[in-house]
Predict the structure.
Amino acid sequence: MATGPELKIDIAEKRFPAAPGALFEGLQLDIAPSSVVALVGPSGIGKSTLLRMIAGIDTEFSGGVEIGGQPARAAPTPGFVFQDPRLLPWLTAIDNIRAADPACTQDKAAEVLERVGLAGAGTLYPYQLSGGMQRRVALARALVVNASLLLLDEPFVSLDRTLVGEIHALFARLVSESRPTVVFVSHLTEDAAALADRAILLGHRPARIVGDVTLPIPGAKRDQATLEHYRAMLDGALESDGD
Amino acid sequence: MLSLPLLLVIWQVLSMIIVNRLFPSPIMVAQVMWEAATEGRLLGDLGKTLWRAAMSFVIAMALGTAIGIAFGRVRWVDRLFSGWLLVGLNLPAIVIAIVLYIWLGLNELSLILAVIMNKVPLVIATVREGVRSFSDDLDELGTVFRMSALRRLRLIFIPQLTPFVLAAARTGLSLIWKIVLVFEVLGSDGGIGYRISIMFQFFNISGILAYTTAFILVVLAFEYGVMRPLERRILRWRPVRN
């Protein structure tokens, strides 16, 4: 069973040249191995930027991000899932997965597609897949690249409720199977209540942590009442910061 | 599939209604074409014209694509030379041919160069638009998954550019078919256009139509035998619109 790495985030300052003021200043966050952490906050607070800094794509900041003791840029490529499926339209599902990892074989890609419930869809092009299937391919691609560290940027946005339920269930199953470290960004507390075992609430500008909430019951064992309780807890934490 | 036989039927019927030496039937034209191919110079002329078209096409596509990428990617190139491109796009084809014939003489080089100079601006403009429309999201995808420059080129850039190169090839080819013949009329030592201009002097309409039909048959064979299968294969990832 794979185990996810520990993350140490220490951002002294991050600013965009065109924007006034810093986006982050003195932000510190440690993420335990194999934990599922939700970064929750309003739009524009810098959640996606923070995720890109963790992924080692955005290096224009002072401070550092360590993944398993290594600087982010030197650490293995994380499994990244975008807001949209972002598949290459000219490649089949299997080839999309292999595009992200040159070492991935045809058989391995097919096996991962099966894990996300898409057995037999490997030869289909993105236009032949439904929105939900495309998201699954994107998740499979991330798993092939790095099954022990998943970074997800608003992965449930613009999906209808049924589809969100399906992807939540798939995601919870994958997490319980292989125990990766997961950081996902969401502006909805219900995503965090459903999947995370820790929610980091971000607010203000420069953004700082306004709440750090532990959600101890494992995602797969949460019933409706627990979900509502967790959600109310997270909403309450966000509201008390706004008061 | 029925459109071409329908055209031939209409032509045949009209030629039976309008009985005139200057309006031959398709059967008569076919006979002339057969004679010109077996006993005359049709195949030699066709070969000359096709060689000129092929040379111009390949060189113009290669040049136009390379320059179009530079226009799309390098801002100062676009700023500095977009005026030139506009002139190139709107310069009458015949002027380029005449000037080159005067400067370089009535030879093969002038003719091919004139065709290339007419087609290149069109390819540049189409490819430039293609490069400008490259997706930033897919660029980010390459960065996130740390793809090498070569993999990005192969998996992200070339596939995005291909539909535009194909579009440039298609529009460029139809332009080349037309202007090669015009330039051959203007000055050359053989080819379909040259032979048609001689027939024109004798009002040999059957010969003109026979040569034109032979040329059109080659164009259609290229369209259905090469261009369409190629497009279908390369763009098979696109949804089929009915």
